[in-house]
Amino acid sequence: MPDFHEAIAFSQAHEVPWPRDPQADPARWGVHHDDPAPYNRLRGPVHVRGGVSGVVLRGGQEAAAWGEPDRSDQTFSVAKTYLALLAGVAHARGLIPDVQQRVGETLPGIGFDGPHNGQVRWVHLLEQTSEWQGSCFGLPDTVEHNRRVAHDPKPPQGKKGEPRQLQAPGSYWEYNDVRINQFALALLHLFRRPLPEVFEESILRPLGGGAGFRWEGYDDAWTEIGGLRLQSVPGGTHWGGGVRISARDQARVAQLLLADGVHRGERLLPAGWVERMRTPCAIAPFYGWLTWLNRDGHLFADASRESWFMVGAGGHYVWIDPAHDAVVVVRWLDPARAPGFVSRVARAVVG
């Protein structure tokens, strides 16, 4: 069995420089501070976090664990990938028969109508190429215009939050949490049930997980569907809320993707869905369906080129490595030190 002690010690020595209690030093916790006023404030709950934790699976078996792997903590944009899994569940149930279908054809009246937004297809939402325009629960898409994220090789055109000229849906890639939240709202209307319930029922429980799992929405993100008042959830913790989950459950989800959506002989995701999630977007080849790819080694030079990742602010990384039949989860790692951690794990795996 590979020796991961060096990688574990490295991660524990380089915790993200955020306070563990968001209330202790609010100015150093989270990512909402970078938004233009009045959108630079929290809109949903945040929680005291744990320290650096992680899990490594090899061949589906736990090879290493450290920190508090069963602690349920917020995981920021790792939740975006969970929306892609829910879209797969919707596809399996016939709710999204074709990802090339325009969203407004199925869900009129929720923001996907008109000359521009009416051209948005499900695949655009999955690739972050929708260029959707509007406000989702009081947050305008423009607050995320020109956003720069660490793994995006494309420089922004201007200052964050400065409106730019929109392109045709499908023709421009931009990491945009407001559009992701609009995607989550669309999925809520499809399922007509709270997304946390669907995710736990369709993914986590069949995997043997779910202890401590929560998916929280913004305080004012409520809508009525079929006479029921339902809370829509965000695809991250940018403005608070989002997914709370343990490292072991994150590893369970990643192992499901490594196994092409099948767990113990049961297909939880439709055939071909996982392969499409890790296929490069034509105009952003570093990205798949709400996942980060490493095809050219740009993301992490020492990870295999088959590797793909779920990534969240605050130092959350879920690494799926088909080349070595491995899954690696690390939480609350200083992002500046992530390459060093990946290098040490890669050396241990190769042996």
UniProtKB/TrEMBL annotation:
Gene3D superfamilies: DD-peptidase/beta-lactamase superfamily (3.40.710.10)
Beta-lactamase-related domain segment(s): 49-330
Region (Disordered): 14-36, 147-167
Keyword Aminoacyl-tRNA synthetase set for record: no
Keyword Hydrolase: yes
A single GO molecular function term of this UniProt record: hydrolase activity
Biased composition regions of type Basic and acidic residues, renumbered to the chain: 147-163
Pfam families, sorted: Beta-lactamase (PF00144)
Keywords per UniProt: Hydrolase
First and last residue of the signal peptide: none
Cited PANTHER family: BETA-LACTAMASE-RELATED, BETA-LACTAMASE-RELATED DOMAIN-CONTAINING PROTEIN
Protein name: Serine hydrolase
Organism: Ramlibacter agri
